[in-house]
Amino acid sequence: MVCYQNYFYLPSYNSSIFHTCSFILNSKAINMSFARYKKKIEEGDTIILYLGYENMHAVTMKRGQTFQTKYGAMRHADVIGMDYGSKVQCPKGYLYVLQPTPDLWTQNLPHRTQILYATDISIVTMQLDLKPGSVVVESGTGSGSLSHSIIRTIAPTGHLHTFEFHQQRAEKAREEFWEHGLKEYVTVAHRDVCQDGFDLENIADAVFLDLPRPWEAMSSAKTAMKVTGGRLCSFSPCIEQVQRSCEYLRDLGFEEVTTMECLLRNFDVRTVNLPIVDMGPTGHPSKEDTSQNTDLKQEVTEQTTSQVKKLKSGNRDSTSQRELKNVPPCFDLIGKKESESFFFKTGITPTNMPGHTGFLTFATLYPS
């Protein structure tokens, strides 16, 4: 374990990848930063209001303002001075105030462009071999989703050079980095790298390209990489872009050119009931058995008919829906529930899979 400027670095099982976490070793007040943690919420801090896994909001604290939630109004003045992670009581419920991290910011940032999410970001961070001290060149900046994660990985001794061809987006990204306490780790430039190049030479350990024509910037990207070599990644939504990029990478002398597509599949946890297996009659059925089977079939028919009538009645209120789910109580979708039935938890894949996001093409430049 190595300590440097309030940071602890713990090497993972792969010596080339480091997991970084930061702790404040003293109680003095510091400015909010995505690169390190602090205890108290202060005016001007960007915080994450957590109402649920799919219900979060990024809010900048300003005295005199109020934020409306489904649980009622939350006054900023009531939150300023609290510890991060505190539970805040609202008129109709409660929420939590969280320290912002790149992962939470990705889920709550204002979208100026399409962004990369945690699934692709994790692959990019690993495949580019990023670690504290790495120098990274990125184009384009977009909404800054990937940029925040890169900065967290390479801090405190690394640096990110990010380029955006759209002036307003570049200025907004620069403003956000400043507000988030990251200005010492990033340089934002307004530049069309496809036409003008990066204007950098022998400084980058890794290059990331998210461009409509990435091959036009690859020659300049190679010039920006260190003489000791490095890794390059290109994100493209279309396979035709990937094919042309791979050709250019090989012509420029890059090796180990590979393309990946990372898809996220969620599993729903369900309870499954397996009824007793009916092996059929072991002998000639008696009159009593026949009578019981007839009564059981009639009961099933009556309950099924009753349930269908309720579904067709058009009664859609929540109370009726809960009642329908529990009718009939002695039957499941796959058979009758008995005391000897076997119940277990299992994962079921969704019927529809999420759509395609993009292809990640990686390549290695060896020392010249």
UniProtKB/TrEMBL annotation:
InterPro entries: SAM-dependent_MTases_sf, TRM61_C, tRNA_MeTrfase_Gcd14. The keyword Coiled coil does not apply. Residues 93-364 form the tRNA (adenine(58)-N(1))-methyltransferase catalytic subunit TRM61 C-terminal domain. One of its GO terms (cellular component) is tRNA (m1A) methyltransferase complex. The keyword Transferase applies. Its main location: nucleus. Keywords: Methyltransferase, Nucleus, S-adenosyl-L-methionine, Transferase, tRNA processing. Residues 285-300 have a biased composition (Basic and acidic residues). It is an enzyme of class 2 (transferase). Gene3D superfamilies: 3.10.330.20, Vaccinia Virus protein VP39 (3.40.50.150). GO terms for molecular function: tRNA (adenine(58)-N1)-methyltransferase activity. Residues 279-323 are annotated as: Disordered. It catalyses: an adenosine in mRNA + S-adenosyl-L-methionine = an N(1)-methyladenosine in mRNA + S-adenosyl-L-homocysteine + H(+); adenosine(58) in tRNA + S-adenosyl-L-methionine = N(1)-methyladenosine(58) in tRNA + S-adenosyl-L-homocysteine + H(+). Its EC number is 2.1.1.220. Belongs to the class I-like SAM-binding methyltransferase superfamily. TRM61 family. Catalytic subunit of tRNA (adenine-N(1)-)-methyltransferase, which catalyzes the formation of N(1)-methyladenine at position 58 (m1A58) in initiator methionyl-tRNA. This is tRNA (adenine(58)-N(1))-methyltransferase catalytic subunit TRMT61A.
